[in-house]
Amino acid sequence: MHVEFSDVIQKRRSTRKFTDTRISRDVIKELIRAAQMAPTASNLQAWRFIVADDLVIVKQVCMFSPGISGHPPVVIAVASDLREVEERGSENSIRYGCMMDAAMAAENLMLAAADRGLGTCAIKSYNPTAVKKILRIPDYFRLELLVTLGVSENETAAPARKPLEKVLFWNSGDERNV
Amino acid sequence: MHVEFSDVIQKRRSTRKFTDTRISRDVIKELIRAAQMAPTASNLQAWRFIVADDLVIVKQVCMFSPGISGHPPVVIAVASDLREVEERGSENSIRYGCMMDAAMAAENLMLAAADRGLGTCAIKSYNPTAVKKILRIPDYFRLELLVTLGVSENETAAPARKPLEKVLFWNSGDERNV
Fold it and tell me: Quick check: B164 and A32 CB within 8 A?
């Protein structure tokens, strides 16, 4: 049940209410493979994906993540392995490179989920110390964001996007150019 | 000539050699629309897209961007409007929210380009002061990254991705779990 790319871009929504349908590990593996295909600065590939699909652990993560809503059956923590960054990356990889890599990988993952009719939500509001402890994430992994995953309970409309003329400038950011 | 989502994810490459084929503004507008469909924390939509397609300006941007290679006909600067962030966002929007929004929007844009057979490359190595001056980007826009766009001169293979067992952990980041 795969669909055209442009439909997937439109279909992806931030899901905030999930059914209790479990997601198979084979599906999750495919989503992680899609995430890995995102660009990665200096080919660092420092992202790591810690997937909570044990419902006891998922519940604990949710308790310490105010940003999570709707009881997802799966939470994926996207982290950067700072040992690898220190070995092969630069100061800038730590400052922003890895964070942007993680965001692009997460977007691929969320689109790949939408392609399979699954819902996701990117989460930045969580207690990183607690989440790292629950998921036994080592000190040298930096948590970049969480992604919740599951079957959406309801279809929601995307919030309207700004009209193009508010966000697009040709050759000059000078506002008289809009 | 639109293709299945999963093929687009595989097809996207970082293009470092472009032909001199011009890209129409209608196509660029569609790519920006795809970018706008990415998630945006707190529905902030603070991203702004300053598109250089005037070849004189493109050349100037390239001169101050060591990360750019292969003579792209178009460079798109992805920026965050900090006025909007200060009005409606939080401290965290400035620290990382906008940067991650910009990265996800850029990934959508690059995938939408791949869907149309176009090449792109995300660039973080540039002189932000010079680029902002050339593109007359106002002080209250923060430059997040550049994306080059055009027709790829040659097809290149993607660098091999790490095997899944190196990057995927189930329920615990403890390495014994791998």
Answer: yes
CA dihedral A86, A90, A91, A93 (to 10 degrees): -90
Q: What is the CATH number of the domain that holds B82?
A: 3.40.109.10
Asked if residue A123 has pLDDT above 60, the reply is: yes
Could B34 and A6 be called an inter-chain contact, meaning their C-beta atoms sit closer than 8 Å?
A: yes
The pLDDT value recorded for residue B60 is 98
Residue B169: both structure tokens together:
């952990």
pLDDT averaged over 10-residue windows placed end to end, chain B, 178 residues: 83 95 98 97 95 98 97 98 92 90 98 96 96 97 97 88 96 77
Q: Compute the nearest-CA separation of B82 from chain A (Å).
A: 13
Give which of B8, B17, B143, B123 is closest to B75, Cα–Cα: B123
Report residue A103: phi and psi, to 5°: -65, -45
Cβ–Cβ below 8 Å for B12 and A107: no
Across the beta sheet with B74-81, the strand order is A168-170, B47-52, B74-81, B141-150, B119-123
Query: What is the Cα–Cα distance from A104 to B166, expressed in whole angstroms?
Result: 19
Alpha-carbon span B111 to A108, nearest angstrom:
9
Residue A68, token pair as written in the block: 């999570």
Maximum Cα–Cα distance across chain B: 55
Neighbours of B50 (CB within 10 A): 27
What's the pLDDT at A83?
Answer: 95
Total structural domains within chain A: 1
Spatial separation of the C-alpha atoms in residues A50 and B173, rounded to whole Å: 6
Q: What is the pLDDT of residues A8-24, one digit of tens each?
A: 999 999 999 999 999 99
